[in-house]
Amino acid sequence: MLPQLCPLFLCMLVLSMEFSKSKGEAIQQKGSLQVELTLGESEEQDCPVCTWRKHSKEMRLESIKSQILSKLRLKEAPNISREIVNQLLPKAPPLQQILDQHEFQGDSFQHNTFLEEDEYHATTETVISMAQETDHAVRIDGNPHCCYFNFSPKIMFTKVVKAQLWVYLRPVQHTSTVYLQILRLKPVTEEGSKHIRIRSLKIDLHSRSGHWQSIDFKHVLQNWFKQPHNNWGIEINAFDPNGNDLAVTSLGPGAEGLHPFMELRVMENNKRSRRNLGLDCDEHSTESRCCRYPLTVDFEAFGWDWIIAPKRYKANYCSGQCEYMFMQKYPHTHLVQQANPRGSAGPCCTPTKMSPINMLYFNDKQQIIYGKIPGMVVDRCGCS
């Protein structure tokens, strides 16, 4: 497939050069100011490698957009604005750690491993599911409104490594003992409520600035995944000695990003590593042969606010010529070319080694997903 694309690239290059040439000849007749523009375009004609790199870079950026959506199994980019992101994003320690770690992802070439199995679709590592309103079937006099957690079938078939329920407790003025309890909800029957207490904690609060409390939820979640029909949600209470409920379980003024959420660490695929080598060039290089060049992708420039982290990452791209005189480095391709010199379009400069990136993003259900997207960084280029 790749050799067949090379003639198309060559045609694009020739057409763009001819267009620049004809445009330059027309401008040259219109005065000294326009002569300077003609000289600039003439320099571009004298540097076909520069034009080639420009086309390669533009095509790489467009390819990255479509690849991300395809690998995340999204038909289109989620319609989530920056204001919605700020409202939904929990202000909690585990999320902040991910943001600090992946604010910008550098060249993954320094990492010597990559995914060996499914190298196309994204693999999920961490899922953060926000609390939703409960079904009316479990409410008594309209309560409780919180909390129901929805999980996709894909996640329910993974191995749960860790599961934490995070609850934000309002600040206390004086040191207090808080009794936190979690009830498993069930539909209300004629006999009344049968909500079952599944966890109970005694917490000593000393902070006046509020406190994020994490609760191990792995066992409960594993049971939910085995028997999804039992998942009707939970009720969360945290009473101080005066009977005040300190748990934030609904969004009110000033409570944005403080509602409960579930943090899951899951294991989706086995991986094995392979050594990685590569050769780099920079944008000022005069090298005309196939080489890897730096390219930084800026998701904010795309207008993709639904990607939380990284906002930018090093993607890199391949560009350069694959002349037949270089084929001693690629014996298989050289033999093919000798066997069919007219029927082959010749080798193209393409990625021969790709690496994944980690990404924190909102999906189309406004859930926060943290996972690995394979094949997003060019580690090595070659002729194939």
Automatic annotation (TrEMBL):
<dbReference type="InterPro" id="IPR029034">
    <property type="entry name" value="Cystine-knot_cytokine"/>
</dbReference>
<keyword id="KW-0339">Growth factor</keyword>
<dbReference type="GO" id="GO:0005615">
    <property type="term" value="C:extracellular space"/>
</dbReference>
<dbReference type="Pfam" id="PF00688">
    <property type="entry name" value="TGFb_propeptide"/>
</dbReference>
<keyword id="KW-1015">Disulfide bond</keyword>
<feature type="domain" description="TGF-beta family profile">
    <location>
        <begin position="272"/>
        <end position="384"/>
    </location>
</feature>
<keyword id="KW-0165">Cleavage on pair of basic residues</keyword>
<keyword id="KW-0964">Secreted</keyword>
<dbReference type="InterPro" id="IPR001839">
    <property type="entry name" value="TGF-b_C"/>
</dbReference>
<feature type="signal peptide">
    <location>
        <begin position="1"/>
        <end position="24"/>
    </location>
</feature>
<comment type="similarity">
    <text>Belongs to the TGF-beta family.</text>
</comment>
<dbReference type="GO" id="GO:0008083">
    <property type="term" value="F:growth factor activity"/>
</dbReference>
<dbReference type="GO" id="GO:0007179">
    <property type="term" value="P:transforming growth factor beta receptor signaling pathway"/>
</dbReference>
<protein>
    <submittedName>
        <fullName>Growth differentiation factor 11, gene 1</fullName>
    </submittedName>
</protein>
<dbReference type="GO" id="GO:0005125">
    <property type="term" value="F:cytokine activity"/>
</dbReference>
<dbReference type="InterPro" id="IPR017948">
    <property type="entry name" value="TGFb_CS"/>
</dbReference>
<dbReference type="InterPro" id="IPR015615">
    <property type="entry name" value="TGF-beta-rel"/>
</dbReference>
<keyword id="KW-0732">Signal</keyword>
<keyword id="KW-0202">Cytokine</keyword>
<dbReference type="Pfam" id="PF00019">
    <property type="entry name" value="TGF_beta"/>
</dbReference>
<dbReference type="InterPro" id="IPR001111">
    <property type="entry name" value="TGF-b_propeptide"/>
</dbReference>
